[in-house]
């Protein structure tokens, strides 16, 4: 994982080692901050482009609104800063992480009405989040013993830094048990999402995904829904239980880091019909091909407004 040697920090491109924060940073102590995960891809016609940059930055601002954090930059300024950071590091293809948090100030739980705010953008080269084997053969998942917090205990529509402790614990539990990723249930026992991905199932020709009740509105999830709408396929946004998940014909995960990752096994049960038991199914395989072509500029009917060139 090659990290970018330059970062954008509070309005300036700096060497990464010079972008330092204080140990008295409020966000470090209490997890009050927000972030985004974005990807840039090499384009078939040359150069690099950031996928759905505007939508990601809009969600970044929404996360800050949920936290009542006032970003001291406009959306257009942060879009420009993202492109500048990619260019400064010479990256055409990379993962991009904008982050905002309450900076050095009062260290009580209440940071005051107008706390200081730090904003940074960093990037690094990152391959398949669940590994090449996971993408090509399918990932192994475990239903976590940790549940996704109730919608009124955490604000599930924001990518809020402190809330990800829940995902970290679920992921570590799954890895320790020999799996690739965790799936979390809600307080009533219905599927929500992975530690950092949304989930879809295919069963008897019907495609389902969990509703937005208690999950993040993933940008890749939105892209997949648009793909199916374009093909005239309706996706049901409904709650489902783990036993329906085990009996699905196909299961796949979506996310900026995970992209489109098929699921091979859940809780030691191989997923799929006998013709592709424990292997990526036809819907997932076709979706993977579409996604990789689209993010690299091969499908302009989809990517025309979704790809922002790094120039």
Q: What does this entry look like structurally?
A:
The protein is an alpha+beta fold. It has 2 domains: 119 residues, 2-Layer Sandwich (D-amino Acid Aminotransferase, Chain A, domain 1), CATH 3.30.470.10; 165 residues, D-amino Acid Aminotransferase, Chain A, domain 2 (Alpha-Beta Barrel), CATH 3.20.10. The chain has 9 helices and 17 strands. The strands form 2 sheets. Strands 8, 9, 10, 11, 12, 13, 14, 15 and 16 form a 9-stranded mixed sheet that branches. The longest helix is centred in the N-terminal third of the chain and has 15 residues. The radius of gyration is 20 Å and the shape is globular. The chain starts with 5 loop residues before the first strand and ends with a strand.
What would you say about this model in short?
The chain is of the alpha+beta class. Helix content is 28%, strand content 27%. The model has no long low-confidence stretch (mean pLDDT 95).
């Amino acid at each position: 994982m090659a990290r970018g040697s330059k970062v954008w920090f509070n309005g300036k491109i700096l060497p990464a080692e010079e972008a330092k924060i204080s140990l008295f940073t409020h966000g470090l102590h209490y997890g009050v901050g927000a972030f985004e995960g974005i990807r840039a891809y090499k384009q078939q016609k040359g150069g690099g482009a950031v996928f759905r940059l505007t939508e990601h930055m809009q969600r970044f601002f929404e996360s800050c609104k949920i936290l009542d954090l006032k970003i001291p930059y406009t959306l257009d300024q942060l879009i420009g800063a993202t492109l500048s950071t990619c260019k400064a590091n010479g990256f055409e293809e990379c993962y991009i992480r904008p982050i905002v948090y309450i900076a050095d100030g009062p260290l009580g739980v209440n940071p005051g009405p107008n706390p200081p705010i730090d904003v940074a953008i960093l990037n690094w080269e990152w391959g398949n989040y669940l590994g090449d084997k996971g993408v090509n053969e399918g990932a192994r998942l475990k239903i976590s013993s940790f549940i996704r917090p109730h919608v009124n205990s955490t604000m599930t529509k924001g990518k809020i830094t402190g809330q990800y402790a829940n995902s970290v614990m679920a992921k570590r539990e799954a890895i320790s048990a020999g799996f690739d990723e965790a799936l979390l249930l809600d307080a009533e026992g219905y599927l929500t999402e992975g530690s950092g991905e949304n989930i879809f199932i295919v069963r008897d020709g019907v495609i389902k995904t969990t509703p937005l009740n208690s999950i993040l509105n993933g940008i890749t999830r939105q892209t997949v829904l648009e793909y199916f709408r374009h093909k005239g396929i309706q996706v049901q946004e409904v709650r489902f239980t783990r036993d329906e998940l085990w009996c699905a014909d196909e299961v796949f995960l979506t996310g900026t880091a995970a992209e489109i990752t098929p699921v091979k096994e859940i809780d030691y049960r191989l997923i799929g019909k006998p013709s592709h038991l424990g292997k990526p199914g036809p819907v997932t395989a076709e979706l993977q091909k579409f996604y990789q072509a689209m993010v690299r500029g091969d499908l302009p009917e989809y990517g025309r407004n979704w790809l922002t060139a790094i120039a």
